[in-house]
Automatic annotation (TrEMBL):
Protein name: ABC transporter ATP-binding protein
Species: Candidatus Limivivens intestinipullorum
Transmembrane segments: 21-41, 61-82, 144-167, 179-198, 272-291
Membrane is among the record's keywords: yes
Keyword Transmembrane helix: yes
InterPro entries in alphabetical order: AAA+_ATPase, ABC1_TM_dom, ABC1_TM_sf, ABC_transporter-like_ATP-bd, P-loop_NTPase, Type_1_exporter
UniProt GO MF annotations: ABC-type oligopeptide transporter activity; ATP binding; ATP hydrolysis activity
Start and end residues of each ABC transmembrane type-1 domain: 236-331
Main subcellular location of this protein, as a coarse class: membrane
UniProt membrane topology term: Multi-pass membrane protein
Length: 623
């Protein structure tokens, strides 16, 4: 409870700072919405009183009618204007909230982004974004203020209902004037209101529990829908392998879990809501009976009957709305707490104060010293006791079987993760001592799971909107993308993919990889890291890229991960990984002479190249 109210107060302060106009407009809108029905109640009562009066004044009657129409029109315009203005402000708050979630994700450690709990938090915030949290809080605050204003007006204007006494000394008049008559009415009113409050609270708690039960399947269903429908690139696999049935089955299972949760809640709510509705109708009859008897025995006029029945109904509705809204706020506090828990998530990677001095870029040495690393939740380490050194100007090849730890080695070097044991040193200083953002600028990287965004070609290369077009074009040329660039309709301004634009250009796998390499070249960092940079390229294109990359990294450091061992020829040293350990290190010739793991991998690939060349020679002799 304390956590929910704390989150609620934080949310109020957040909205006040983010969009100061929200709360004043909310107060004004709520007050106008609450007061608006009373225009009709009060003026209609006055009109009815005038109509039933024995001394009817037509001028006053016409004036009241004109006043009613005018006030209704002006009141409706004011309410609509304020309501629309508040909606616009809510959308502004929503946009800023969405932005804050994205910015928080950008600033999070890579380790945290890979955490399933963080992923679940992001999905939950995204799913309930439009119905719960801060946007819902503004609506709830509006309803609460409206309920309080409505209660206040009703109380002020219904005092006469209980104070007025029936005229005469008849049995009916004595009954109406006796204290038990209003006491019984108030008792029934209290019991009816209490039940409505209890049933509303029970409904809110049940709804919240239902939402919690369906949270996981709902998030999974949304992810599945996004993967199958929104990401059109996956459509090829779905169609070729006829995966529609499997995907539909998975989706139906999730939908059944959601529907099951809602059916369970529906059975629980049905009786409560029926009885609540029945009591509301009985209470309405009781209000007309109470006020009608007072009118019949002369306590007040016929017009007041209309006024007081409306007032009492508004009062009852206001009490129920107030209590239910407070209960909704408490339930909504859980969603606010989810948002602030996400925002308050602390980065695991500590940011130090030591700058990466300019002279380090001119002469540097990396050292892995007895490094061991285990992924969160993994059964065993992915890297064990890794020790090695490499300097500026060295071109290092990292090879090994799938799952041997090559990419993990790169992620640790780029400090996407920190090792649990050992140290990674830059010029003898633990890399955790350097400023994190400055250290990241030290690397230009192409990962094997690189991503090309649905932006313009130039923005993809530069990773920013304001960029040097000359540098971007040169980077694409050096990455072997030049011929394709010259065929693009708008050059660097060509929109990639069709996510946002119908005329977006689709890239092949090899073209996308060249753009990723161009991004690496554009950054022009001191150290280049390329994880399977040519996996989607043919042998000729691969040889061309490596030749270009060699020219680019002259005088710099570079690390290449590749399953094609032919790329190891131009590297000054080779690191061979096996089952998370550094099995061998040396030059190409040294490792072949050692006849170890590298020798086996090399001969396994050479065998296929030799067989292919032999088959081609045989074909030429035949023809």
């Amino acid at each position: 409870m304390k956590k929910k109210w704390k989150a609620f107060i934080r949310a109020i302060v957040f909205v006040a700072k983010d969009c100061p106009a929200v709360w004043p407009v909310t107060l004004l809108t709520a007050a106008l919405e609450a007061a608006y029905p009373y225009i009709n109640i009060i003026l209609s009562a006055e009109i009815l009183t005038e109509i039933t009066s024995s001394t009817r004044d037509m001028e006053r009657l016409l004036f009241l009618a004109a006043l009613l129409v005018t006030m209704e029109f002006l009141g409706s315009c004011c309410v609509q204007f304020c309501s629309q203005l508040l909606n616009c402000l809510q959308y502004m708050v929503m946009a800023h909230l969405d932005e804050s979630v994205v910015i928080k994700g950008w600033g999070m450690d890579y380790t945290l982004l890979c955490d399933p709990k963080i992923h679940e938090q992001q999905n939950t915030i995204s799913h309930w974004f439009f119905w719960k949290g801060m946007v819902a809080m503004i609506t709830q605050f509006r309803r609460l203020i409206g309920a309080l204003v409505s209660i206040g007006i009703s109380v002020a204007l219904t005092v006469e209902l209980f104070a007025a006494r029936a005229a005469g000394d008849s049995m009916g008049a004595r009954l109406v004037n006796h204290w038990t008559f209003p006491a019984l009415f108030l008792l029934f009113f209290g019991l009816s209101t209490a039940y409505n409050i209890w049933s509303g609270s029970r409904f809110q708690k049940g709804t919240y529990q239902m939402e919690q039960d369906e949270k996981a399947p709902m998030n999974q269903a949304e992810e599945l829908m996004k993967a199958c429908c929104a990401e059109y690139q996956r459509g090829k696999d779905v169609r070729i392998f006829h995966a529609q049935g499997m995907l539909l089955g998975k989706f139906q299972e999730l939908c059944e879990a959601i529907v099951g949760s809602r059916k369970k809640a529906k059975v629980s709510f049905r009786r409560t809501l029926v009885l609540s509705e029945l009591l509301s109708r009985i209470f309405g009859i009781a209000v007309y009976l109470f006020a009608g008897l007072k009118t019949l025995y002369g306590a007040f006029g016929v017009g007041s009957l209309l006024k007081y029945t409306g007032m009492v109904t508004q009062f009852g509705d206001g009490i129920v709305a107030m209590v239910q809204t407070i209960d909704e706020m408490l339930q909504n506090g859980s969603y606010l707490a989810d948002y602030f828990d996400y925002q308050d998530t602390k980065n695991i990677t500590a940011d130090a104060a030591l700058p990466v001095a300019p002279e380090i870029r001119e002469d540097y040495e990396f050292e892995f010293r007895h490094v061991t690393f285990t992924y969160p939740g993994a059964a065993g380490p992915s890297l064990r006791d890794i020790s090695c050194k490499f300097r500026k100007g060295e071109k290092i090849a990292v090879v090994g079987r799938n799952g041997s730890g090559k990419t993990t080695f790169i992620k640790l070097l780029c400090r996407l993760y920190d090792p649990q044991e050992g140290q990674i040193l830059l010029n003898g200083v633990d890399i955790r001592e350097y400023r994190y953002e400055e250290y990241l600028r030290f690397f230009s990287t192409v990962f094997q799971d690189y991503h090309i965004f649905a932006f313009t070609l130039g923005e993809n290369v530069a990773a920013e909107s304001d960029y040097s077009r000359k540098r971007a074009a040169r980077a694409l040329e050096n990455a072997g993308f030049g011929p394709r660039l010259r065929t693009m309709p708008q050059g660097l301004d060509t929109q990639l993919f069709k996510n946002f634009y119908e005329d977006g250009v689709e890239l092949s796998g090899g073209e996308g990889q060249k753009v990723a390499i161009a991004r690496c070249l554009y950054k022009d960092a001191p150290h280049a890291v390329l994880d399977e940079p040519t996996a989607a390229l043919d042998a000729v294109a691969e040889a061309d890229i490596y030749q270009r990359m060699n020219q680019f990294v002259q005088g710099k450091g570079a690390i290449y991960i590749s399953h094609r061992l032919s790329s190891c020829h131009f590297c000054s040293r080779i690191l061979v990984f096996d089952n998370g350990t550094l099995a061998e290190t040396g030059t190409h010739e040294e490792l072949l002479r050692a006849e170890g793991l590298y020798w086996k991998l090399w001969n396994a690939q050479a065998k296929y190249y030799q067989e292919e060349r032999s088959e081609k020679s045989h074909r030429r002799r035949r023809f």
